Amino acid sequence: MTYEYFYGSNDALELDYANNFDAENAFDGFVTEDGNNDGEGWRLENGVVTCTSSQASEAPEILYLPALRLTTENEVEVIFKAKVADATKPGKLQMILCSNDEKHTVLGPIGQIWNITGTEYQEIKGLIVPEKADAYVIGICFDNNQTGAQVIIDELEVKNGRSTATPSAPFDFTATPATDGSLQVQLIWYAPNTDIAGNFINHADKMELYREGVEEPVYTTEAVGATLAAQYIDQSIPEKGEYTYRVYAYLNGLKSDAAVVKVKVGYPVPPALENLKVVENDDHTVTLSWDAPAEEYGDVKYYIVRNNEVELATAFEGTTFVDNTIDVSAGQTFVFYFVQSYNEIGYNRGTTSELLFVGEPSGVPFKESFAGGVSSHQWMNEVVNGYDAAWGTGSGTTTNPSAEPQDGDGGLAAFLSTILAEGDAVRFTSEKIDISSIAEPELTFHMYLTDGELTGDALVVEASKDNGEYEILSDPFNVSGNSATGWVKQYVSLDKFKGERNVRLSFRGVSAATYDILIDNIVVDNKDNGGVDEQFAATAKVYAADGEIIINALEESDIRVYNMNGVQVYAGRGLDARIQAEAGMYIVTVDGVAVKVAVM
Asked: What does the pLDDT read at residue 4?
């Protein structure tokens, strides 16, 4: 420690100074200060010095030693032993350096605050490096807030220690064990740039590294410039276990204190989590679970973060964690988790969960038209292949193909395939939808089609339940190579998820880097089974029989037939039509009015 200088008297004792308090005049030259004025301060008693506090006070009881002459050439050591009379009533001591004036002006603390807890003596040691050579007073302070404690000190010694030109200890000493369990550790430390008096030094002559249990240094550097790093990989470790390393700096034959580090060697870092699951509970909390690591990884703990910003746990122990801090007061919200396991050796790379929507699901009819380029429900990009989140909402007029929104409301959703690499795939996923109340759930949406050369730019419709795996519900809808062009309404059955309360849609865009994919007017509702008679009672009759679609119109009409991929398979004008068709669902329009028909 270094201290600001105050003028002091030259009337002082020379070092070395010692006092075992056995003589009758052992207290000569000492001064006491009764901080709480209870008359129970420091006193000489039966060959020891003791102090008792009967009244709490912020002001301590202070025992001032006789004035001592200190120099700047040596570090001064203050040593005594201390104990308490009753182990159930511990005490606290601190030493201070004071100027040699009437007020004993405090210059600073000497060392730490010591907790005196036992009835057997413990050694107390403080070190002083005075700012200037002069007479000083050392004070020993007893904390009066430890009411009822009695502390006892004996065998006081103040002496000159090592030269103040001794280099400071090396700093920032770290030990990094091999993460694969091999018997090696990397050690890095930095050369000091001051001596213990605070004076600048420009180098260390050498530095020696010792490993616990080895008498000779395992590594010795040459001269190292101040603040420069030295490092060594110790590959001579005999067996797995915990080791203590010490490193010393030398300058002009003077040896520094040791920089010390402990490290466990021979143990592997735990692997990434296996079988990480995240499940929403009925109360909209989320339970995370994973498999327990093998015993060989030791004491494994977990760091858990939600949405890359909310720190949920830094040292969680166990394999099941419940997140009950999610705010769903405003409706659904999305969450994902990063879980990283670690032990005393280090951290693994961590594992990120799938994304969940948490909260009450949206009801039906569920409608989304992206009016004004803004979604009315929550949608997420989820990358399948590649790196870019390519779905967005807007007016659509700058895409390829360029199109106005289907319903003219200024908004649509677009998968910007043209800015991606061929084969990139990104899901456009919805929040949760409750379809349990409808008997024949169906998804309809409009997709903009072109008749250009057929490419791999395509859309696949998927869905999941309870935030689970997505299941494919449609063949690919290709943007190009179609006979029907423009906005074409698409129909996808959700019968596979009938009765479910938590269904999420996925529009998986697949890029061939040629055409963007535009969709609009997404609706989830009960299947429209109005029937031919209701749809066309006054104009036409549409039905299927023996592998044919049959249309009987009351007057000449524009007749078109599309398969479920939006490909036009028939176009004509007239009163009647009979179209050969393979088994499947088809859309028939008569003067623009559409009906779905099934060919068996």
From this structure: 43
**CA proximity to 124, closest of 146, 103, 147, 142:** 142
Q: Which residues, in sequence order, are CB contacts of 469 under 8 Å at separation 6+?
A: none
Residue 408 clears pLDDT 70, i.e. is over it: yes
Alpha-carbon span 410 to 394, nearest angstrom: 7
pLDDT higher than 50, residue 3: no
H or E stretch at 459: strand 458-465
How many other C-beta atoms can be found within 10 angstroms of the C-beta atom of residue 185?
A: 22
Q: For the chain, how many residues are written?
A: 600
Tell me how far apart the alpha carbons of residues 468 and 361 are, in angstroms, rounded to a whole number. 15
Cβ(53)–Cβ(42) below 8 Å: no
Q: Give dist(CA 406, CA 448) in Å, integer.
A: 8
3-state secondary structure string across 176-201: EECCECCCCEEEEEECCCEECCCCEC
User: pLDDT, tens digit, for every residue of 245-279?
Assistant: 999 999 999 999 999 999 989 888 898 899 999 99
Q: How far apart (Å, rounded) are the C-alpha atoms in residues 545 and 473?
A: 26
Q: If you average pLDDT over every residue of the chain, what do you get?
A: 91
> And the tokens for 352?
């990120």
- 574: nearest Cα among 589, 554, 594: 554
Q: Are 447 and 488 in contact (CB under 8 A)?
A: yes
CA distances from 346 to 69, 143, 226, 255, 449 (A): 51, 41, 30, 33, 54
Reduced to 3 DSSP states, what percent helix, strand and coil does the chain have, rounded to the nearest 5? 5, 50, 45
For residue range 80-97, list pLDDT tens digits in order: 999 999 999 999 999 999
Pairing verdict, β 337-342 and 333-335: unpaired
Look at residues 122, 180, 183 and name the one whose alpha carbon lies nearest to residue 153: 122
The pTM of this model reads 0.55
In whole angstroms, give the CA distance from residue 202 to residue 223: 10
Beta-strand (E) ranges in 309-423?
A: 310-316, 320-323, 333-335, 337-342, 351-352, 356-358, 366-368, 379-385, 391-394, 412-415
Q: Where are the alpha helices (DSSP H) in 481-575?
A: 531-536
Nearest to 340 by CA among 273, 267, 286, 292: 273
Check if the beta carbon of residue 406 is closer than 8 Å to that of residue 446: yes
Give 515-531 as a DSSP string. --EEEEEEEEEE----H
Report the chain's C-alpha Rg in angstroms. Answer: 41
Half-sphere exposure of 367 (CA within 13 A, CB side): 6
Structure confidence at residue 10 (pLDDT): 55
Q: Which amino acid is at 286?
A: V
pLDDT recorded at residue 395? 85
Residues 152, 85: Cα–Cα separation, whole Å: 7
Q: Which residue has the tokens 């040896």?
A: 255
The strand pair at 548-563 and 584-590 is best described as antiparallel
The amino acid occupying position 449 is L
